[in-house]
Amino acid sequence: MLQLIADGVLTGAIIALGAIGVTLTLGILRFANFAHSELVTWGGYMALIFVGFFGATSGSFPAVSFGWPLVGAIVFAGLATAALALIVDRLVFGRLRRRGAAEMTLVFASFGIALLVRHVVVLLFGSEPAYYSRALQIAVEVLPGMRIMPDQVFVLALTLVLVVGLQLMLKFTRLGIAMRAAAENPDLARIHGVDVAVVIRWTWIIGAGLAAAAGVFYGLTVQLRPEIGFALLLPLFTAALLGGAGSLIGAVIGGLVIGLSESLSVLVIPTGYKQAVPFMLLLVILYLRPRGLFGPSA
Known about the structure:
With about 300 residues, the protein is mostly helical. Helix content is about 70%, strand content about 0%. The chain has a single domain (about 1-290), classed as ABC transporter involved in vitamin B12 uptake, BtuC (Orthogonal Bundle). A two-stranded antiparallel sheet has the order 1-2. A hairpin with a 2-residue loop joins strand 1 and strand 2. Helix 3 crosses helix 8 (about 195-220) and helix 6 packs across helix 8. The mean pLDDT is about 90.
């Protein structure tokens, strides 16, 4: 049981990072961007390019399977993924917004972009699984019945740092206040001098950067493959809806709930069916509280 909880928290942390971008898009841009999950895949593979040049194990840290190059790869992946998100917004979503396109038009456009990104990844990197490092790790027993690898501890710690840093940014910086104002009422925010175009730009940058980190963490603790985005699509949106659109804390809690639910579900259902758990949770959420746990009351 304890091992399943540990695995669920790790999975939930990765889902939470991706779900933050989804909830920012829902809250500020007001449409469901189904291409966001493919940014997770793109970020993971961009880090693989960086690691290919510098190696993941160069100057390895004690205990973990990697060194400074992988830390640099996370930064590089974040920048490359943010650049992709800005290009897509400029060429597709931005033009649709200026033409007054309906929300469903943006949603269908995001489907097309998701397919395009996924096939570009397959074209560039192939369909076989890839790894940052093949160094073997020995899991450390932290409690009776619970073993955790050092890489997983690194992922959880850095996820916590990223989430806390983003929360502080949204609460205390001018950009964060502007983003919260735009999410509340973009027209009113614009009247009060908020540059909504800048807010939108930073929404893409932050969401894409966190998606890239989620992709790197997934590749570090599991493996890289082109289907990562497709596999995480439903968990990401379920986590965002569970927490409530626009709620950072809600996305994090939603991600942890999804991760734990998937992990613990193997106690009562066969492993092959655990991917259906986010779908069942999504149906329950939409029925009982469509606005999510931390969303505004109806």
